[in-house]
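Session log. Operator J.P. requested a structure for one protein chain; no other inputs attached. Running the standard single-chain path with C-alpha cell output.
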Amino acid sequence: MIHQDYFIRVIRAFFEALVRAMNIKDEKDRSNAIHELYEQYLGEYEFFQNANVEDALVRLSQFPEEERIDRTEMLAELYYVESDVRVYPINETLLERALALFEYVDQHGKTYSIERLKKMEDIRRRLGLKQS
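Structure written below.
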C-alpha cells in the first residue's frame, strides 16, 4: 500500500513536470526539460531515442509489474510531446512510437481514458492514418 501511494505521487509529479515542460516557450529549453523527464522517470534518454517499441517495452519491464503500464504511458506521453519540438522524419517516428505505446496501454491497462483516445486520434490524423 505504501509503494502504491508513493507511485501515485510519482505519476502526479511526472504529469505536473510534463505540463511545465510543455509550457516552456523556448524550444531548446523545452527539449532539454523533456530530456530530463526521460532520465528522471524512465532511464537513459539516448536508449529511448534509438529503441524501437519492442525494445522500449523490454526496458520498461525492469520496473515492478504494478508500475509498467503507467511507465509505458509516461514514455508514450514523452514521445507525443517531444514530437512537437523535433523535425521530420524524427517527429513522425516519435508519433508512431507514441501511438503504438498508447495502443499497448489501451489494450493492457485497466483504466479507460478518453484523453488517451483523443491523443491516439490526433496522432493518427497527424500521420495521415485511417481513424478507428
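Operator note: Residues 2-22 form the longest helix (21 residues).
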